[in-house]
Design goal:
289 residues; alpha/beta; Rossmann fold; eight-stranded mixed sheet; two-stranded parallel sheet; 16% strand; globular
Length: 289
């Protein structure tokens, strides 16, 4: 039985999407698919040189804005340039990097993957009409999220744990945002998705032997293409799905979109509240819900 594909997406004419990190990988594939369905797409990217060709390929329904999620000033400048939005897709991310810090002193993976998107979402939320989509990962199973030490100042840094923490934070944020929006009586939805194991170019930057394994996996096609990996977030962004829902490949690593499972820690309300408060304190962005 054939699963859901981009061709099954409802008509998106007149709808406005902002996609972070749409200069390549999953983000570029989502931008192409949404534009083909009639949407206007804004590519919010750090690397304008690689974003421009994607926008040119799509045509007049695509625009590019500069966004460096590792710099709060850049996030605010980007938000100031964006008008009304139907859907925000928080796609951009970094993976298993050696220890480094953002412009604001955050650990780079948590700062980029979670705190940057937390700030951007909070700034844009009053202009979002439909939903916010967060990109998590199977690696959220590696995370713990220490809300009192998001910057790895009291722990010995481990790049994979840090990546898992950031992806767990993405999922906790998506679920908590859904809860708070519903409690406030808002019709805006918050959903999440993961791509399974997809050849996106994200892997291979850890500067460890894993990079060779990741590249070999892509060459051997153990996972799926970036276009197929983009299907779960596209489903979460365009279909009539419940707020708070989480989507991934049917066969976990690959396949058509289906409901995805996640760790029980995601729904630990005490931990979610602590993460939310720490995120507001660190970014200076307060959600008026």
């Amino acid at each position: 039985m054939r699963g859901w594909s981009a061709e099954d997406m409802p008509d998106q004419s007149g709808r406005r999407f902002v996609i972070t990190g749409a200069n390549g990988g999953l983000g570029a594939q989502m931008a192409r698919a949404l534009a083909a369905a009639g949407a206007h797409v804004t590519l919010a990217c750090r690397n304008l040189a690689t974003a421009a060709p994607v926008a040119e390929e799509i045509g007049p329904t695509a625009t590019v804005v500069h966004l460096d999620l590792a710099d709060l000033s850049s996030i605010r400048e980007c938000a100031d340039q964006i008008g009304p939005v139907d859907v925000l897709i928080n796609n951009a991310g970094v993976m298993a990097l050696p220890f480094r810090r953002t412009a604001d002193g955050f650990e780079m993976q948590m700062g980029t993957n979670h705190l940057g998107h937390f700030a951007l979402t909070g700034l844009l939320l009053p202009r979002i009409a439909d939903r916010v989509v967060a990109l998590s990962s199977l690696a959220h199973n590696l995370g713990r999220v220490h809300a009192d030490d998001l910057g790895w100042q009291r722990r010995r840094y481990n790049r994979w744990e840090a990546y898992g923490d950031s992806k767990l934070a993405n999922l906790m944020f998506a679920r908590e945002l859904a809860r708070r929006l519903t409690a406030a009586g808002s019709t805006v939805r918050s959903t999440a998705a993961h791509p399974g194991y997809a050849a996106t170019g994200l892997m291979g930057h850890s500067e460890t032997p894993f990079d060779l394994v990741a590249r070999a996996g892509e060459l051997l096609r153990i996972g799926q293409s970036a276009a197929d990996g983009a299907l779960p977030p596209l489903y979460a962004a365009t279909m009539d799905v419940p707020t708070g829902s989480y989507w991934g490949p049917r066969l976990v690593m690959r396949g058509a979109p289906a409901p995805a499972s996640y760790r029980g820690r995601v729904d630990d309300q005490v931990q979610r509240d602590r993460l939310w408060q720490a995120s507001e304190d660190l970014t200076g962005v307060r959600y008026e819900l």
